[in-house]
Amino acid sequence: MTHSVAFVLAIVLIALAFDFINGFHDAANSIATVVSTRVLSPSAAVVWAATFNFIAVFLFGTAVAKTMGKGLVDLAVVDATVIAAGLLGAIVWDLITWWLGLPTSSSHALIGGYGGAAVAKAGFTALLFPGKWISTLAFIVIAPVMGLTLALLLTVALSWALRRSLPRRVDRVFRVLQLGSAAAYSLGHGSNDAQKTMGIIVGLLVAEQQVLAGFPVAAMHLTDAGVVPAWVVIACGAAMGLGTMSGGWRIVKTMGQRLTKLTPFGGFCAETSGAITLFVASHFGIPVSTTHTITGAISGVGAAQRLSAVRWGVAGQIVWAWILTIPAAAGIAGLSYLVLRAMVG
Question: How much is the pTM?
Answer without folding.
Answer: 0.79
